[in-house]
Specification:
It contains four helices and no strands. The chain has 96 residues and is an all-alpha fold.
Length: 96
Amino acid sequence: MGGGFAYVLIAAMAATSSDRAVARLGPLRWRRLHTLGAWYVWIVFAQSYAPRALENPFYVPFALAVLAAAGLRALTCARAMRRTPAASPVPPPATG
């Protein structure tokens, strides 16, 4: 069932991978869909390869690749967050 939902998310991401789809969904919803989809598919792969790697050394490279992909994604997100100025939670005082 979990893998089946991953296919649904992959199809949704493929269907919304155009400028027209981004405009129709809105950038925030598009980003949420693609972030959720990417992490969900990663979880499915991690659940598939990690337990097998503990039992059979053949799966160790695949499990390491899945972990490396998550690490690279997390590193990329952290760098992007450092470059983007944080929105101020309190609006500036009105002048006048």
